[in-house]
Structures are given as C-alpha cells and as structure tokens.
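Recap for those who missed Tuesday's class. We walked through two folding examples back to back. For each one, the amino acid string is listed first and its predicted structure tokens come directly after. Nothing is annotated here on purpose, so try labeling regions yourself before you check the end of the notes.
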Amino acid sequence: MSVSNPTLITFVIYIAAMVLIGFMAYRSTNNLSDYILGGRSLGSVVTALSAGASDMSGWLLMGLPGAIYMSGLSESWIAIGLIIGAYLNWLFVAGRLRVQTEHNGDALTLPDYFSSRFEDKSGLLRIISAVVILVFFTIYCASGIVAGARLFESTFGMSYETALWAGAAATIAYTFVGGFLAVSWTDTVQATLMIFALLLTPIIVLLATGGIDTTFLAIEAQDPSNFDMLKNTTFIGIISLMGWGLGYFGQPHILARFMAADSVKSIANARRISMTWMILCLGGTVAVGFFGIAYFSANPAVAMPVSENHERVFIELAKILFNPWVAGVLLSAILAAVMSTLSCQLLVCSSALTEDFYKTFLRKTASQVELVWVGRAMVLLVALIAIALAANPENRVLGLVSYAWAGFGAAFGPVVLISVIWKDMTRNGALAGILVGAITVIVWKHFELLGLYEIIPGFIFASLAIYFVSKSGEPTKGMLQRFAAAEADFRLNK
C-alpha cells in the first residue's frame, strides 16, 4: 500500500471519531422518532450544518473543482443556481414543513407527511412516494460509495474492490448504530472540516503561485477565456445549470433536517448559518479549481495525475502543497463530504422501508424497540444493494447523480412546496404531481429533448398537474383546519 503514514493515521483517527459519535448517539436513541428524526431536537447550528453537509457530496471537492479547472468560470453557473435554490428552500419550505409535519400526525418521513396531510386512506400516495425514494436513493447511495472508493483507491493505492468496502464500512457503522442523531452530529463535524479545507487550500495555492496578480496572469496566459462566464454556453445551457437549484425543494435527506429542528424559532438562525457556510464552501471550491489552472501550468512536472483525471485537482494540490499531516486532514474533508451525504441517504431509505412499509402494512403493533432494530436492518440492506450496484466501476453510477437529483426535485419538489403554501391542494393533486414529475424526468432524459436539464420541464409540468387536478376537487374540512392551525403556528413562532 503506497501511502505516507501521516495520511493513513489521520484517516484512521477521523473514521474512529465518526464511529465513536455513532455510539454516543446510540445512548440517546430510544424509539423510532429518535432513530429517524433525532426526536426533533436539533438546534439551529446542527440543523444548518447538517443540512449543508448532507447536501454537498463528493462532487463539491472533486467534480466541481475539476469542471472549473477544465473550463474556467463558465462552469460556476451551477453554484449560483444552487445558492438561489437553497436560500428559497430555507425561506419558503423549512419553517412551514417543520410545523406542517407536526400538525399532520407528527409525520416522520415525507410519505408519512403526504399521507396525513391529504388524508390518503388508500395508502397509494405513501407507497408511490416511498418507491420513488427507494429507487432514486439506492442509485444515489451507490454513487457515494463509488466516490469514496475512488478516494481510497487514489490515496492509498488499494484495489477498487478493497476501497469499495473501506470507504463504505465506517458510514454504515455509525448510521446503523446511532441513526439520525449520529448522522446529524457527524455532519456538523464534517461541515466544519469541509469549510476549513475549502478556505485554506485556495489561499495556499495563491501563495504558491506568487499572489493574486501573478495567478490571474498565469490563468489568462493559459487561456483568456477562462475568465469568461459565457464561454461555450448557450441560454439553455445556463438555464440547465441554474435549474439544479430547483432540486432542493424535493430532496428528502435535506428536508428531513427541517423536520428535525427543535422549533420554528431555530429556522431563521439556521438559514443564516447554512447559507454563509454554503456560499463560502462553493466560493472556495470554485477558487481551488480556478487557481489550480495557474499552479499546474507553472508546474507541469506534477500535472500528470490531474491531466489524466481533472477531478483530482483538490487531491493533488493537498498532497503537493501541504505537510502530510495537514494533507491527511484536508483529504479527510473529501471523505467527510462523501460520508455525510451517504449516511443521510441510507437513513432516509431505511425510514421509508421501516415507517412506510413495515410499520404501516406488515406490523402495525410493532414496539418502538422492534422498529428501531428493523430500521437498523434496513440501513444494512440498502447499503449492501448500493455496494453491489457500485461493484463495477464501469457502471458510471456517478453520472446518475444528476438523474436522481432531477427525479426527487421534479417528483417531490412541487408537491412539498405547494403543500406548505396552498391550502386548497388535494390528495389527487399530490398524486398527479408525483407521477407527472417522475415520468417527465424519465421520458425527457431518455429522449434528451432540447438539451434542457430534465428537472426544469419535470418541475413545471408537475406544478401544473397539481394545480389543475386540485382545482377539479376540494380539500376536506379536516385538511383545511390542520393547514390553518399549522400556518398560524408558523406565523406566531417564526
């Protein structure tokens, strides 16, 4: 194993710390609500940082810096779209979803919320939304496992098969043991590590290339169009990149953080913390890729790994410019990004299987202890399926992340957003929204229509379906009363 000991030791200490947090959370996990939503006890700091960390997966430190390194600032439109989408999600959805889930049967999962909010006695809404979660998230989990495997493979010279298990084992361990609290507490540590790495690295790269003026001259000398935000872009291309922001309204692993906040009063402060963290992280990511152009053009002798795989920009800069101990900490930030997202996704899949299938259809009288252990078993089951999907690195699972993001954004985004702001939405409207959103994404992706990212037509058509189908019926008196009570609660406490 070709590895410097300091890097390996840092990784081992970091992983051990995450598993230890899992065991600490185990002691606070007494029932299914604790396991799935941490007993709705997250303060504003943990809510904010865990929402950010669960959102930003390995692409933050690998995919985006690589894209900027290859194409310059024209790739940064996606970051702008994400910042706008995340802010609007905090503003319109976070607080309202927190109170609506509490007023609608103290719902623990999105399918649970949809079922209670729209009084769906048939169970159809719960089943369809749980199936959407399982299909898209199993693919999403597999992509996270591939990213972790690539990190271990490149850092420690492991075979892909060994790296696959090494990268996944720690995440599975602390999610299995500690549930939501473990995931949220570890996310907070991981978010801190990620922002440290993304603020420190571009500063050191700037110093290594001779300061801002020298760096910018070197980037311009390599290709003046690196500064052009519109290089090789079209109107549809820019709209497609910014359209990623629409996905936030429908991501179950991010929405779960809003549902788990200790009160609506925490949301405003959490929004400020989360958006500051996100803007600094995305700014740092863009800077790493951009300044990397200057560094590697000035040092062609060490540019080979990056020219072979541009997603290695951050990894190579950390290994070249930093003491091995510091490099170990910085590379742990990539592991943090992968682990934080993967753990949330495993838990959401587990909660869908436990709460929405096992408890609802198989064992209505199951005890809380039984449900927690079923939840743990489901984490294991989903993880093993995801590892099997990721086992062949040629599967190009990472390419499916945008597909899964679009699937959730279009299937759930309009339903969640409209359900918390429009009292007249009906059960059939919600059902139509989920089906139209998911089907549009699948069909649009298959035919690659207009070169437009499938989340945009999916979101628009799902929203129209919700409106027109809801208008053809009427909500029940109970639905209107619960909505009004939740909205009053939100306005009183926000």
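Example two. Treat it independently of the first, because the proteins are unrelated.
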Amino acid sequence: MTLQAVLTALLLPPLLLVLLGMAGAGLASRGVRGGLALALVAGFGQFLFATPFVAGTLLASLDPAPEVPRAVAAAPGAIVVLGGDAARSGTGGDVGPLTLERLRAGAALQRRTGLPLLVTGGPNSPGLEPLAHSMARSLREDFGIRARWIEPAAGDTRDNAVLSSAILRPEGIGTVFLVTHGWHMGRAAAAFRRAGLATIPIPVRIDRAPDGRPTDWVPRPDHLAESWFAIREWAGRLVYALRD
C-alpha cells in the first residue's frame, strides 16, 4: 500500500471517525472531560455519512452542472475510459463495479461513434494486475470490443491524463471523449486540459439530489462508501489546486 493510500485511509471517514470514537471512549474511561462527547460526535458522524441524504448531497456537489455543448478545436479522435476500482478474483484481479459502469458507458459510446478506445489505470494494490489490463479484458469478453490503446501505469488522475496524452498526441489526436463518473469529471477534465487534451465529458451515473424524504435518512454501508468517494474527491481537488 502506498503512502498516499495510507494517508487517505487515515484522514478520511470512516476510519478517521472510528479512531476518534475509540480515542473518545478511551478518554472517557479515564474520566477525561470531553471524551464521551468526542465519542458521541464520531458515532453520529458515522451515522450521517451512511445516510442517502448526506452521501447524495456530497456527490451532487461534485456532479457537473448541465452545460450547453461548447465548440472544440477538433472533433474527438478517441474515447478515454478512466479506471476506478478493482476487485480480486481467482485470476488475481478484475474490474470493480465503478470501473465496470465506466466501461459500459465507454462501450455504448464506441458503438455509436466507431471511435477507438483507450483504457487507463495502473495496479490498485500489490498483487493485482494493472487495472487497464483488466479493463481491456472486460471490454473484450463482456462487450465484444477491443481497446486500441492500454495505458497500465497511471497511479492517479493526473497520471491518467499525462500518460494518455503521451499516447494520443503522437497519433494526432487532440480531443477526446472522456468517460468517468460525474463526481470525478471536474477534476479529470481539468487534468486532461492541463495535459494538452481537449475533452468532451461523458459523465457516468449522475444521481438525483436527495430531497429529505424519510428513506434518505436510513443508513446503509454503501452510502458510507459513497460519502468516502465524495470526500476523497473534494480532497483531491484541493490537492490539485494547491499543486497546480
């Protein structure tokens, strides 16, 4: 596991809140004032992040607003699908559900346009094959489409952009359809522009913004995961803004 992955796990919910709750309980058991309050706040925060209302609000804050299509310098010459998550399998690695959603959108777009596909993503963890290889295999076996280019080294979104540009620019391609989730599109499109590729965003699964109905307050583990993705994405935007 990389240092970046360790810091991401430690500094974001749910692990951060678990650690704060444990610290608060430990302090309370020693009679330290405020320990119980810290534990209760951490527990309540865990509850909130697991609700559809908070998770949906966080994701909606990242989704791109509907835009009137803008003119680009040239017609897109390729479709770029960004890797997301990976899953372990008997063969050592496979695409995760988020990546599969992106591949499905990329495959549908390829059938409509006939444009060649590029998949990009390095290993998500030690022992797994590069995600781009899993993506290319899924495209071939699940959708009957072959990726023209496979970029297997990218470790983050900026790498996706820089390494994809290094493949496509020598091919004379300066504009691409970019396929990733709506909540990731803002950071991804900006990274590709900085790498010299104009993009036409193809956001995947833009969810409804929650409206506070009773079911929006029923916690579930999958919504805790959505909150984690949203908070990590905001943290990534901040890091990119400071770095670039």
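Answers for example two:
The two ends are 25 Å apart (CA to CA).
Strands lie at 78-82, 86-87, 94-95, 117-120, 149-151, 175-181, 198-204.
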